[in-house]
Amino acid sequence: MGRKQRIDQFFKVIFTVISTFSVLALLAIILFVFIQGAIPFFTATAEAVHVIPFGISSFTLDGDAYTYSSLPRDAKYVELGESPGFHTLGFQHQDQEVSILLDVDLERPLPAHRVNVVAAAPGVVKYTEEYVYEVTYPGKIAGQIRGFYLAIPQQPTGFFSQFLLDTEWRPTYNKRYGIFTMVVATLFSTFGAILVGVPLALLTAVFLSEFLPPKVGGFVRGAVDLLAGIPSVVYGFFGLMVVVPLIKKLSGAASGNGLLAAMFILALMMLPTVISLAETSMRAVPQMYREGSLALGASKMQTAWRIVVPAAKSGIFAGAILGTSRAVGETMAVIMVAGNSPQIPRVFTDGIRTLTATIALEMGYAQGRHNRILFSVGIVLFLIILVLNGIVLALKSRMMEDA
């Protein structure tokens, strides 16, 4: 084997390893997201009711005595089991016996669970994250807290009834994870951006490719490419400072943040991508097509719309697909102008919250099931992008067949 063949073989191995690693890494990421997003629909949050003492050295549970030191080191809790019924906790507090009566029925909706405090000493029961009841008592020392965490499992979330078609999103209160309003908001804002952005981008691409002088066209192309590199937060800031006040003034609405502002900003962000790909495809159309059309007596405008644009359909549709994907997946700019209200908009000035905005706003503090539900939201977003791209590709195939 010669020297050149050995070099070619070496680089072939390198490229194979890199490409294989890239594909495996991508598949691993997708698999991880899908597994995390599927967990809430198949498993409960815990296998049994947990009783976790804090600041209490000894206690009784249904007559059995426990000490804090006798609990397992890796998990300081006692399981009540899955059987419904009444359970009694008891411990000493300020030389008094404290009894806590628990009514646990896992078949009922969680808000129906009762934690009854029967004690001479005052206790505070509050409802907190992840279906945990926290029962606290002041200790003998100022600032000291004694009490129990009562962690009750949440049953698997119904994918259609409690997630996809539910309109209530209250992840930190009453544990409702309905995303229907956010799906509708995402689709409305995306289709609105497509209806505004794609025609404008196509008109601009035709103008750049067919009517502007080459020198001026090169300058404008550079400006369009520059717009494509502007960070999303800059578009959002422009929308917040210019578009939102303008919509508020013209519509007379209480706030300009809403669906219309989100549609406008998304359409603006789509323009550079769609313009660049569509214009590049039009310039790639052979010059003989134009010359033949003009020789047959067609005007320059007729040549552009009836010859050049149909010949460049593939690139135009590719630009539309990329622009649509950016509109669906945009986050920061939408957060700044959309109002972030999880509701179905009835007018264009109503506030909305998209799927991406929900993930960005809540991922920082989400825990347990709430955290995994956000992965589920990401899966739905991924599927929406696939469906929209499939629709565009189907339209492209239909138009290519008709041509």
Describe what this molecule looks like in 3D.
- Helices cover 55% and strands 16% of the residues.
- With 403 residues, it is an alpha+beta fold.
- The chain has 3 domains: 3-41; 49-155; 176-402, MetI-like (MetI-like fold, Orthogonal Bundle).
- Strands 4-1-10-9-8 form a 5-stranded antiparallel β-sheet, with no helix packed on it.
- A hairpin with a 2-residue loop joins strand 2 and strand 3.
- Helix 1 (3-38) packs across helix 12 (368-402), helix 3 (180-211) packs antiparallel against helix 9 and helix 7 (287-295) runs antiparallel to helix 8 (300-311).
- It is elongated, with a radius of gyration of 30 Å.
- The protein starts with a helix and ends with a helix.
Radius of gyration: 30 Å
Please state how the strands of the largest beta sheet are arranged side by side: 4-1-10-9-8
CATH level 4 superfamily of the largest domain: MetI-like
Anisotropy-based shape: elongated
- Could you give a short account of the major beta sheet? 5 strands, antiparallel
First and last CA, distance: 51 Å
How is the topology of this model organized?
Blueprint: H1 3-38, E1 49-54, E2 58-61, E3 64-67, E4 78-81, E5 85-93, E6 96-104, E7 114-119, E8 124-128, E9 132-138, E10 145-151, H2 159-164, E11 169-170, E12 176-177, H3 180-211, H4 214-228, H5 232-251, H6 259-283, H7 287-295, H8 300-311, H9 313-329, H10 332-337, H11 355-362, H12 368-402
Antiparallel strand pairs: 1-4, 1-10, 2-3, 2-5, 5-6, 6-7, 8-9, 9-10, 11-12
Helix pairs in contact: 1-12, 3-6, 3-9, 4-6, 5-6, 6-9, 7-8, 9-12, 11-12
